[in-house]
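Sample pair:
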Amino acid sequence: MTLSWRRTPPLYAIATPIVSGTPGKFRGVVVVRIKAVLLTDILTDYAGLGKTGETLLCKRVGDEVVYLNNIRHDPNSALKRKVSIHSQYGVPCILAANKQEGIVEASDYRGVKVLAAYGYIPVGNWGLVSKIDVHEAFAPLETMKNRNFYLCLYTIIGLTVVVYLFGGRITRPLAKLANASQKISEGDMNVTVEVCHANDEIGVLTRVFNLMASKLRESYTHLEYKIAERTQALEIINTKLKKQQEFNLAYNEIVTMINALAGTEELLSKGLNKIASFSDSHVGILYRYDENECMLKASAGYALGSDAVRRESFGLGVGIPGQVAREKRRIILKDIPEDTLFKVKDGLGEYVPKSICSFPIMLKDRLLGVLVLASLKDYSEEKIEFVDTMSRQMAVAISNLESYQTVQRQAEELQQQGEELSMQNEELTSQADELRAQQHALEEKNREVERANQAKSEFLANMSHELRTPLNSIIGFSEVLEDQIFGELNETQKKYIHNINTSGMHLLQLINDVLDLSKVEAGKMSLQCEDFPISAALLDIKTFMKNELDKKNLSFDVEIDERLASINADKQKVRQIMLNLLSNAVKFTPQGGKIKVSAKGVNGVVQISVIDTGIGIKPEDIKRIFARFQQLDSKTAREYQGTGLGLALTRKFVEMHGGKIWVESKLGKGSTFTFTIPLRPKSKTLQKEATHSDALENGNKCPLILVVEDDQKSSELLQGYLTSEGYKTATAWTGKEAVDKAKELKPMAITLNVNLAGENGWKALEKLKETPETKDIPVIIVSMVEERDRGFSLGAVDFLVKPITREQLVQTLKRHGLTVGTETGPVHILVVDDEPKTVELVAAVLEAEGYCVQKAYGGQEGIDLAIRQGYDLIILDLMMPKVDGFDVVEELKRHAGSKDVPIIIATAKDLTEEDLLRLRGKVESIAQKGRFSKEELLRDIKRIENARLEGREKQG
């Protein structure tokens, strides 16, 4: 037995070993803990023990005696105070712990003389002592002794006188008193002294002595009663502990049995038998809950009186088991009806039980079954609690059994599946061998296709160079002759020159279409998306097509949804789509017909239709209208010229944007070609925003102005004003974005709307002027109200009040020197090309415009001239023998005198991404021979010239 005094009240624990049926087979230990309230209440009751009396409970441990309870004179001594069995102190406890009984006068643990009664309690091997200090126990005797002392003192003198007369009469009673006192001190409490001479002092003394002896007898009798009472209380506690120990032993035995039979159905019946036996039940049955059928079905029984009980099933709420299952709580019945199924059967017949207990078998909130027990006696609370505890253990056992059965079933299924998979694996292995053989064949075919594609690419590249180079000369010289730069032509010459130019352009268009289509199909063409106003793009195309429309007297209308502002797409490819569709419409619409373009926004896309009143298309031809090299019939092909690739390429460009194209047509009445393009590309990687690298590449072309507006229409209006004057623009919609983009792009100027929605443009202006990277950038305030003073105080260079006209904006920029470059003196241009005809053509065009041209007929010659002499511009071909255009660019950028000279690439080579990467940041523009007109070349040169002039003005 151990005792824990870490908390109040203390706990007592009794432990006993568990052994199996096999002798000496140790299984475990059963420990019973009980509150010591019952013991402490008895032991701390000091009634009748005076001021110093107390009751002690002790136990011998080895050669020491341990005090088990708190001592009256030492409140915190439980389990702490010990005394050796050989000590001269604590003698009553030593005797009691050594299994002795009696009464003794001896020293206690304090070394104080006490009168003690002690005894032994076999159940717990405890010693029980009830004691009182001697001075308190014999206080009446001390009083008597004092009285005797004084009486003796007073009578000594009298005794001397009358000793002879009264000696015998006095000494005999005193001798009796002395003898009686001796017997009392020896423990004989039944001593009395006969009263003699009742009226004299001896008689009084005798009566007082007898009274004292009587009091001592009463005290001793009361002490014995208290000891007997407390011994009985301890026996009751010991009985309860034995019952608890029996339940614990039963619990451990059942748990051990369940664990030993885990995974088998046998654990249910044996577990039920053990529970019924320990709970003194005469009938028992265990139902398992079938979740699929929502029924309780009998799984095990104990001493059942009828097989009908085994066959009986209960639904939720039906019968005692069903009620327990539905309510998920135990039910105890005592008034049992005569027709109950749970009857007790013996050799004489069947009997109705006196009590029936039903317990739900639950694991967490899941119902696993119901346990029903019946007995001819009433169940005690201890047995009900015991069965309730065991039902929870049975729940764990049933859950483990179900898991085991599920795993076993799954293992069987997996084994079966494994056998099937093994068969399938053999089949797959055979198929894999066949696939490998097919794969090798496909790989070989792919290599052949790759070689064919490579050969095709090389052929197209060579064809591009070999065809474009002479075509460039044909088209270029025919344009020069048509412009009559070197003299006038007669009408016949003009006609022939025009025919030459038209045929060359037709052939060049065919070449370009073939190459573009090949690049799209090879996945080598990418989109360069940017934001641009769709209305402006359509009107620009209308202007471009004006001559063609006027030749056939065709009316042309453009209808644009006002809600459409801008679109994010590849501007050049959208332009090419529109030109292809409009060229077809013009080509197949008779004289005096009508062409209409409509644009509207539909579900996040822009839908553009080209409507004509032309010859129309047969229904059977609509399906192949977008195929390559397809023209409807030979008669149409002869009457209307075409490459047969325009619509095929148009469809590819539309699909690259994530859109679609279709046609609706009636023969003889006209056609409607419609295509859609998303307003925003699906991938942000397609968008082309103005970045720092773009600003560096374009810095020599035209000045960049950052437009800060939160209204899209106002932003587009300002951008339109600026781009029409040769400026490049970037946009910002918030103050924070304005500061970030100004730091990144370093624009020449900023237009700032101070009335930004949800933000304060003044704060953005303050931030711009506080930031070192942006503080010197001129800021022009755009506002709805007049706040010039505030704008100027914060660092703005000018202030414009809406509405703003183009003239106001341009004049404001010019007033502060923020202009595109103006014309200057002669511009010296170096033309480098290995084709003499090309050199002569470019020189003729430029010299006619007043430029000074120097010619170089090879890469090395171009390098030498550029380093030796200073030029304002270099026009360079890439495809040259020995030293090609890439080598020329690299060499020129390494020399201080030529590294800042702008370079325009003019080549017949179909440039790859790698080629563009090599040239990025080193040249001003790239144009393929035949793809740009004389006007485009001159426009690029003019833009470079203006940028150079602006740079010189800033340096001055």
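Residues 1-7, 632-643, 683-701 have pLDDT under 50 and may be disordered.
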